[in-house]
Amino acid sequence: MASIVGAVNVTHVPYIGRAIANKLQQDPYWKPFFDGFPPVRDWLAKASPDVAVVIYNDHGLNFFLDKQPTFAVGAAPEYRNADEGWGIPTLPPYRGDPDLSWHLIESLVGEEFDLVTCQEMVVDHAFTLPLELLWPDRHPCPVRTVPVCINTVQHPLPTAARCFKLGQAIGRAVESWDADARVVVIGTGGLSHQLDGQRAGFINKKFDLLFLEKLIADPLWVTRYSILDLVELTGTQGVELLNWLAARGALLGEVQKVHANYHIPISNTASGLLAMEGI
Ligand code: DHB
Ligand code: FE
Q1: CB of 269 closer than 6 A to ligand 1?
Q2: Residue 191: which domain range?
Q3: The overall pTM is greater than 0.85
């Protein structure tokens, strides 16, 4: 049976793609952000996953506001990146894992999650940049991938409790996958940020640090907040932390921190990194 080696949650911001392309890792603005990654890369090298289930939100590249699934799972042999209009380089395609995709889809639908199944799918910065950060300069990416999208963009959004349960169902599905494979779960986005409106630039360090702590020891803590509470506490795009919560749910039991980093700001965003593994 397959096993889950752990989960890594990573901020996604298009500006990071520009920094990688321009090799700005040692630049004073970028250094505190990029310096967070080597310990997680070392851990990944030891954990040696074959496949990554990447839980993220699409930003209008694959789904637009006219058609917005609450949850969608990719089931394609490969996932192409495309020009998103941020001036960031388009990256080579990512290998899929249709066998795991279909097993996940069967299991999740069996557990009453109503999904959109995507046999063709393009992937945006929220999928590509975390993989670039975790496996820099590795083309093709050394792991096969399964994209899972959560709608954090167009209201109504799924509740925190629902996203946590989705993650748990993903964890159970992976553990029942009849394959000799090691799987890492990656959640992307967050932490607090707001790109639009009167509160543009809003960041809530106090909440983010508490969230980083609670995600390890008491992830259900965040389910006390409604989506509107989370928008108020973390910003309109800060609700991307739902992806982190789902990734944590996939670890099922108790977990320990492998490594964390928090740095303000990257572009308009409080950047966070949290790797964890089951105890
Ligand atoms: C930024 C953050 C995001 O989450 C995103 O998807 C796009 C841009 C930003 O801070 O610039
Ligand atoms: Fe985003």
Answers
A1: yes
A2: 3-278
A3: yes
